[in-house]
Write a structure and sequence with these properties.
There is one protein chain. This protein is an alpha/beta fold. It folds into two domains: about 140 residues, 3-Layer(aba) Sandwich (D-Maltodextrin-Binding Protein, domain 2); about 100 residues, Periplasmic binding protein-like II (D-Maltodextrin-Binding Protein, domain 2, 3-Layer(aba) Sandwich). Helix content is about 40%, strand content about 20%. α2 crosses α9. The N terminus is likely disordered.
């Protein structure tokens, strides 16, 4: 019995020693993608996705909260090993980091006061015409900021740390519109009473504005192909067996899986 216990302990120690430690960076201010609870614990869709990936690649992962605009720089200087924070794959970001295969593909929306003329917009062209000379808010460092700068040429861009700050300034009239990922906007819209805030124009994806990218993925440091391939395999398995669909429905009420 002593020999069996010793062997088991040795095997456990060997497994622990060989386990990979990964630091995951996220910006936990974007519910239901990621947020913090009363105990400052990170939770949400991306947390569940990341924990499942770590389980499947046999990695020991720790989560670190960081403002969104500091995530990519933090990855580049080695503060994080990966980022899981609703990061959209696009050409500009792909110059500085690598991406896994997408695990989600979420639409985006513009939000305005109900009496704003842009509320009547039916197309992206209508939105551009109605808001190009206005003040538009977005979270800094996001694809939303890139879309405003690229397509709303005369707009005044105002940047924020969190989506709720964008909503607050729309309500107060300090900005004319805000743009954010639709599922992050929904709980904020639901908490606002009286129909004062409305969605303007259609839901938008990378098909409409290329800056929105090709879905949300895990970001990794350039050249880390071994880890990238392992994450890709985990994502492929999670899509195939329905795990991502299940996690999506838990947090959003519908499937965010890439089609």
């Amino acid at each position: 019995m002593r020999t069996l216990i010793s062997s088991a302990l040795l095997a456990l120690l060997a497994t622990t020693a060989s386990a990979e430690d990964l630091r995951i960076g996220t910006s936990a201010d974007y519910p239901p993608w990621e947020a913090v609870d009363a105990n400052n614990e990170i939770f949400g869709f991306d947390r569940d996705i990341g924990d499942e990936i770590c389980k499947r690649i046999a990695a020991t992962c720790t989560w670190q909260n960081q403002s969104f605009d500091g995530l990519l720089p933090g990855l580049q200087v080695g503060r994080f090993d990966v980022i899981i924070s609703g990061i959209s794959i696009n050409e500009e970001r792909s110059k500085s980091v690598d991406f896994s295969a997408p695990y989600a593909d979420a639409p985006n929306s513009f939000i305005v006061l109900a009496d704003n003329p842009a509320a009547a917009a039916k197309s992206k062209e209508d939105l551009i015409a109605a808001l190009s000379s206005g003040v538009i808010g977005a979270q800094g460092g996001t694809t939303h900021e890139q879309v405003i700068r690229a397509h709303f040429a005369n707009a005044n861009v105002r940047l924020y740390e969190r989506p709720d700050q964008v909503m607050s300034d729309i309500l107060s009239g300090r900005i004319d519109a805000g743009v954010m990922e639709r599922s992050a906007a929904e709980p904020l819209m639901d908490s606002e009473k009286g129909g004062v805030l409305v969605y303007a124009g259609p839901k938008l994806t990378g098909v409409d504005f290329e800056e929105f990218g090709k879905g949300q993925a895990v970001a990794l440091a350039k050249g880390n192909t071994v880890l990238q391939n392992r994450v890709n395999d985990a994502v492929a398995e999670m899509l195939k067996d329905g795990t991502i669909k299940t996690i999506s429905e838990k947090w959003f009420g519908y499937d965010q899986s890439p089609k």
